[in-house]
Amino acid sequence: MGQSWLTWVLFNAYVLLMLALDLGVFHRKTHSVSIREALIWSTVWILQSMVFNVGIWHFLGSEKALQFLTGYVIEKSLSVDNLFVFLLVFSYFNVKPHIQHKVLFWGVLGALIMRATLIALGATLIARFHWVMYIFGGFLVLTGVRMLFEKEPEIEPEKNPIVRIVRKLFPMTPNYHGDAFLVRVDGKRLATPLVVVVAVVEVTDLVFAVDSIPAIFSITTDAFIVYTSNVFAIMGLRSLYFALAGVIDMFRFLNVGLALVLSFVGVKMLIVEWYKIPTWAALSAVGLMLSLAVVFSLLFPEGKGEADEGDEANGGDEANGGDEANGGDEANGGDEANGGGEASEGEEQGDKA
Hints:
This protein is mainly α. It is 75% helix and 2% strand. It has 16 helices and two strands. A two-stranded antiparallel sheet has the order 1-2.
């Protein structure tokens, strides 16, 4: 049963209020977010989510509350994959730590709009064409299998068509101007490279949303539960990034856990006509897979023991020759490796000229 329009309005008003407080009050001054501050904000967002879940339990019942919690856990875990990409993007474009929060803020705002659109579209399709569930399920299983067996593709922002489109649409300065997105130079309003970075962050989230949103539809087709669990998971993504940025490489088996989660929820959608897996069982299974991924990552860290020896034994030529082989990238494109902001100066200056 859908919620009244007033419920939707109140929830979105609350989200906008929290975003306004975040940027306008708590992060009014641009600064580097410390791990302590990030952990505090992560706790704040998680507590808000749980309080909201209690409200769902009180007004809509225990089954809806369990669906929200399961959807929240799935979305939160899948969004961790975004953090790897954020690290690469910020490193590539040489975005300073004190500016990253502002970039993620606007990235999250755009992500909320895009996800709301995708959820509305998905809910409409499922309501009218029930067989769409099987397409979503098959897609999730294939995505999980690919994550499990295929090597993760390298992220090359410079080859992203969005980067080229943004640079063609907006006259751009060659360098950053603090945390400004637009500046006036010689009487002309120009965009800064931060506009490109936000665009890449937005596209990245859109790609991940294609996986995560169908995954929550495997738990419930209630658009309100799908939307609110998505929103709370995404709202806490910025603080989670700053909390885990320095240790995220420790979780080497996390992708395996996420692949199993996607495959599991995909199978859940495919067999729904014959057997409906209870929500509590789905939540337990997802929690177990993610917990095992974290535990195995901590027990068998990368770069120690046989893993290191294997890399050195098999990679004598790769380790030494890799530098030579990749030397073209480092020697000729060192600026690219160290930061897309400098790497793209030539192009941007050329565009400006």
